[in-house]
Amino acid sequence: MLIEPKMICMISAYTVTQSVITDCSFVASLIVAAMYERKHNKQLITNIIYPQNKQGKPIVNKGGKYMIRLFFNG
Predict the structure, then answer these.
(1) 2: how many CB neighbours lie within 10 A of its CB?
(2) Dist. CA 73–CA 54, nearest whole Å
């Protein structure tokens, strides 16, 4: 049986850390979005990761390249 790799198995606020990104408000926003997504089962972070399948869930890119869509001021 072939097991397909899974892009995201669990989203958690505890996996987001501030290191290279010096803007703590951006990191805090990611943590709040992760907590909301997990609590309410509504995609906030995972729906901005590409490539995606037809259901809008991120999928593994065999080339290892991913893109995220970020909005500035709206």
Answers:
(1) 3
(2) 28
How high is the pLDDT of residue 47? 86
Percent of the residues in the chain that have a pLDDT greater than 90, as a whole number: 5
Of residues 57, 68, 69, the one with CA closest to residue 5? 57
pTM equals 0.61
Every domain of the chain and the residues it spans: 20-68
Token pair 């669990």 is at which residue? 10
How high is the pLDDT of residue 51?
92
d(CA 14, CA 34): 9
**DSSP of 9-66:** S---GGG---SS---HHHHHHHHHHHHHHHHHT--SSGGGEESB-TTS-B---TT---
